[in-house]
Amino acid sequence: MPEPAETVSRHPRDDVAGLFDLTGRVAVVTGATRGLGLAIATGFAHSGAELVVVSRKAEACEEVVASLRSEGANAIACACHVGNWESIDGLVDRVYREFGRVDVLVNNAGISPIYDKPSDVSEALFDKVIAVNLKGPFRLAALVGERMLAGRGGSIVNVSSIGAVRPTRDIIPYAAAKAGMNAMTVALADALGPRVRVNALMPGPFLTSIARQWDMNRFAERARTFPLRRAGLAEEIVGAAIYLASDASSYTTGTVLTVDGGAQWSMPGAGDAKPDL
Q1: Which of 95, 124, 158, 202 has its CA 20 to 30 A from that of 274?
Q2: What are phi and psi of 112, to 5 degrees?
Q3: For residues 198 and 182, what is the distance between their CA atoms, to the nearest angstrom?
Q4: Residues involved in catalysis
Q5: Phi, psi of 215 (to 5 degrees)
Q6: What is the pLDDT along the chain (277 residues), one digit of tens a residue?
Q7: Ramachandran angles phi, psi of 35, nearest 5°
Q8: Side-chain-facing half-sphere of 159: CA atoms under 13 Å
Q9: Which residues share a beta bridge with 52?
């Protein structure tokens, strides 16, 4: 049997809290200035990680870093357009200059522009959605994952969406990209094992900034069919993210973990919205 990766045995197995401890680990989180990315970055910092806050806007990154530092965290800001491979190359070079390693990478940045009908999606828009949601995460995972593999190992967490498995007419390019991310997660787990674990989170509807685009009355009717009858709050993604980033998931790789309140299984007529018989 092969020797276990170094990241597997940092805590004795009778120390349950220690399994989730990220103290001293360097974590890169993209799309970390709002929504789920901000919640994940903050949760990681509270678990002891050193943070690299990545987003397209430098000012937003600096604001998050200032907040994390005020709470005692070690964090730096790195502005990067994750849909651009040249920018990603520069990001990776800078992080390794600053910290010498990456222990956790979270590919969270994503976009899902609004359109009226499929034919309204231009080639430029389609390419942008694929670049940010799939092409960029692939490049970042490939560069960081290979360095992890050559070093002390690590964990890569891709943030997908239940749109990958329950696509709707208003998110076709986004859903296609996220379905590709799910497949990429499994393939990278194979490519980078055994020292690097690669998993994905597959969130359902969360009340983040994207919810501003929703028709909340229509959503409320749909949410009545969910087992948990509601959308998620951003902080409710943190436990799952820490699990996949930490030693608690030391035998978990190539997994797509759904965090959606049961939304992907909801059907018309289910839950509280079912008709009276």
Answers
A1: 202
A2: -145, 80
A3: 10
A4: 174
A5: -85, 100
A6: 444 444 444 555 567 878 999 999 999 999 999 999 999 999 999 999 999 999 999 999 999 999 999 999 999 999 999 999 999 999 999 999 999 999 999 999 999 998 999 999 999 999 999 999 999 999 999 999 999 999 999 999 999 999 999 998 999 999 999 999 999 999 999 999 999 999 999 999 888 867 677 677 787 888 788 888 888 899 999 999 999 999 999 999 999 999 999 888 875 444 444 433 2
A7: 60, -140
A8: 27
A9: 28, 76
- 73 touches 51 (CB < 8 A): yes
Which helix (H) or strand (E) covers residue 179, if one does? helix 172-192
pTM of this prediction exceeds 0.85? yes
**Which fold, 15-259?**
Rossmann fold (3.40.50)
For the record, the structure tokens of 158 come out as 């891709």
Provide, for the chain, the percentages of residues in helix, strand and coil under a 3-state DSSP scheme, each rounded to the nearest 5. 50, 15, 35
Q: Determine the Cα–Cα distance for residues 260 and 245; give it in Å rounded to an integer.
A: 19
Rg (CA), the chain: 19
